[in-house]
Amino acid sequence: MPANLPPMYFEAEKRYREARTPEDKIEALEEMLAIMPKHKGTDKLKADLRRRIAKLKDESQQKKGGARQATAYSIDREGASQVAVIGPPNAGKSALVEKLTNASPKVAEFPHTTWKPTPGMAHYENIQFQLIDTPPITKEYTDPWMVDLLRRADILMVLLDLHADPLQQLEDTLSILWGWRIFPEGVPIPEDLTKPPFIKKVVVVVNKMDRREDEEDFQAFLELSEVKLPSLGVSVNAGKNLMALIEKIYDLSHIIRVYTKAPGKEADLMAPFVLPKGSTLGDLATKIHKDFREKLKFARVWGKSVYDGQMVQRDYILQDGDIAELHI
Question: Is the dihedral of CA 13, 17, 20, 23 positive or negative?
Answer without folding.
Answer: positive
